[in-house]
Amino acid sequence: MTAPVEHLIFESSADLVATAAARFIAAVTAAQDARGVAAVALTGGSNGIALLRALAADSGTIDWSRVELYWGDDRFVPADDPERNCLQAREALLDHVPVDPARVHVMAASDGDFGDDIDAATADYARLVGPDTVFDLHLLGMGGEGHINSLFPHTDATAEDDRTVVAVTDSPKPPPRRITLTFPVVNASREVWFLVSGAEKAEAVAAAAQGASRHDWPCAGAHGTENTVWFLDQAAASQLS
Ligand SMILES: O=C(O)[C@H](O)[C@@H](O)[C@H](O)[C@H](O)COP(=O)(O)O
Questions:
Q1: Residue limits of the Glucosamine/galactosamine-6-phosphate isomerase domain (predicted)?
Q2: Among residues 64, 129, 155, 225, which is most buried (max CB within 10 A)?
Q3: Is the CB of 141 under 6 A from ligand 1?
Q4: Is 174 a member of any domain?
């Protein structure tokens, strides 16, 4: 049986984020009730970070000490570069809630433990996120050309069917060097949620709904094993039939 795909359409990105935050609390709490610890892959992007800010203001029943946090991708730049997704997440949420630092799994920065060696940094994350990794929830932002994580159209990373984590050294969107999770691990997640707003995303949203090839529109290839939810504002949903 195919897992359901929901399209939730909101008047504004603020409404989208408020509902995603409420559902995040419910999903994480349910995962903790079922399995003790919830495993979540975070995303960057405006809505992804706004969601974290909303959770910093009110995270309901979440026991943050029992949440394992990972990232879907990050930029391979110095640790203090504001482009780092994990730095943005730290400022938006992690500095404000009692997470267990041992359960916050950032991707290495270009001045971190592996220095400028992106392959070693990637291999390190692959030891953590392997073929048996199952996230309870994988959050995704999306670019106008349909990229998710650092999986861009017609790239090797998007074609990857075996490795769970790969290095990207020629990202079409700067900065060029990134580390990203791939489809095998994204699609092993119980729930995959897209947080998408803006008219420039509408064509990609519609392509995914029509079952496009993931090589053309990477967003079309991401599905949870239990549920896939598209949180959309009206502009992003405007080309859905
Ligand atoms: O790695 C990147 O270059 C960006 O973080 C990118 O992947 C972002 O998440 C999406 O483009 C959605 O971003 P917005 O929600 O801000 O449009």
A1: 12-230
A2: 129
A3: yes
A4: yes
